Every structure is written in C-alpha cells, then in structure tokens.
C-alpha cells in the first residue's frame, strides 16, 4: 500500500512537471487589444523566445521557478514577471503600458542659392580614369556623386532616387537608349558602351536638364567627344580575359582626326585558370569596336561621326522564382551618331542624326525571347546669346 501511494505521488508530480513545460498567454495593451509580434522570452534563455500572434497569443517553453519572463514591444514599457507567478495554462493575460517618447520641436530653415538648384558636375577622361570605383567606365564614374542613387551593380545611371529609365544619356546631342552591355536576364548591364579615350567632357545634370534634351525627369548625362588631338597615340592592353587596342591618328592638323578602339573578351583562359570560380558562368564572348571621325572644313564648320558595333554571347546558369536552369543569350548592336555644325557670328547651327539597330535572343528553360529594335533620331539646334546686342 505504501509503495502504491508513493507511485501515485510520483505520477502526479511528473504530470505537473510535464504540464509546466509550456507557458502560454495573451499580450494586450491598456485598451485590452491584442499586441502582435511582441517579444516574449525568459531571462535565462533570451535566444529561445517567442513572439505573439495576431491575437496576442504566445507559447514558450518553461525554464525554472526562479526565472523571469520578459515581454517587450516598441512603444511600450518592458514587462517583467517572475516565473512562479505564471499560470500553467493560457489564463496569463499580460498588459503592456504605453511608453510615449516626447521629442523637442526641431525647426530647420535654410536658403539655397539659385545656382545650386541648377548645379552640374563635369568630368574629363582623366577624371574617369582616376576615379577609384569607375573601373575606367564613364557611366560608373558618377556613382560616387551625391546625386547618384544606384542601388545595384548596373552601369545604368540613376539620379535623385529615380529609376534608370528616367535618366537619359546624350552622346554628341543624340539620346542613347540602353547605354550598357553585359546585360543579364533582368536587363541589368554591368558596363557602359562608351570609351573614355574619346570623351572630352561628361556633364551630369542631376536636376533641371537643358530644355533641348528633355524627356528625362531624373537627370541628364551629356557626353561630348574630343575636339582635337595633339599627337598620334597607339595603345594595346591584354589580360586573362580580354585583349584591347586603341589608336588616335591626325589626318589634317589637330582638328581632323580618326580614333579607333576594339576589345575582345573571352572566358576560356579565365575558366581554365580558375576552374572552381564562377560556377554559374560557363562561357562568354564579347567583341566591340568604336570609330570616331572628325573632319574640320574650316574654323566655322565641322562634321563628326561616331560608330559603334558590339557582339556578345553568354552561356551559364540562372535562377528565376522556383526554376533554375541554363541561360543562353546572344546579341548584336550597332549605332551611329552624326553631327554637322556651323558657327555664325551670333550663334551656332547644328544638325544631329542618330541610328540604332539592336538584336537580342535569350533562351531560358522553355522560354525563347527575341527582340529587334530599329530607331532613328534627328534634331536641328540653333543657339544664340540673346543678351548680346
């Protein structure tokens, strides 16, 4: 009989311990409304807590009687309850009191000079090369400017918090759409299609762009090619994944010249040397050539033509939503920018023409995306200083 009595006491004690393994309750505010996502944890084990659900309900493993249950939530005073005061069921109604924070009044007054409202940034080719984050890329050189708000690795410019399609790149007076290469499936291009060797001045208008280059609520990047070369130049570069060259040749004085550059990027050596790196990239091959020709007829008249051709192929692995598979893409692009300029005594007359051809094919899973784009652009500008009599 004595053994039976001891056994019954043991069973009831174990049952009480088992029931006490979980403590549950509801967290409410002073109006008895449930508080969602309140933090609930024991002081001895803060990393094994719980959060209240939409109804304020929570359930948390019990520790020991000398512990303390802590409940916290932003905007409310922290609550501490000794573990021995907790009920073993969901009758624990825990009320949090509001903890308002009063802020002193802050008055900000400022006067901005009118000139700063129309502020611009100008970069030369040397500025682009010397920029530590530009990677000798004209469009990437503006990333560290205060007005730049790029949030990805794209060379597409983003100004004043706007998306990249609201900023416009102007090359010798002609807008260049999609001024990037090495595009991925989401159309993010990691490099621009411009060579800094051919750039005279790159002007960034983060706000209030010139009227003649409208259709850009985010801003304007206005690029002008060089107007003269002082000597003939020849350059050759080579690396693990690329070979490039550039040359500048005077034809008649300093103001009539031709510039040519070319690049070939291929992944063969890179993948051979780094066999375990870049597992998602199987191969890539990119070729691009640019030619800038400037012919000066006299001191008041010149013709400039810039032509660019690019071919790129990529083979790798990509993922979208719940699917991961092979991604193949290949593309061709050609564009031409031509300008004829005449200077008069009281102004300047300019004719601009641009042509763009772009073809791209992307194969991803059972999706085949084909796109072709043909576009022409033409404009006539006349500039004069109306303040002069």
Automatic annotation (TrEMBL):
Keywords: Signal. Pfam families: CarbopepD_reg_2, Plug. Residues 145-219 form the TonB-dependent receptor plug domain. Residues 1-20 form the signal peptide. GO terms for molecular function: siderophore uptake transmembrane transporter activity. GO terms for biological process: siderophore transmembrane transport. This is TonB-dependent receptor plug domain-containing protein.
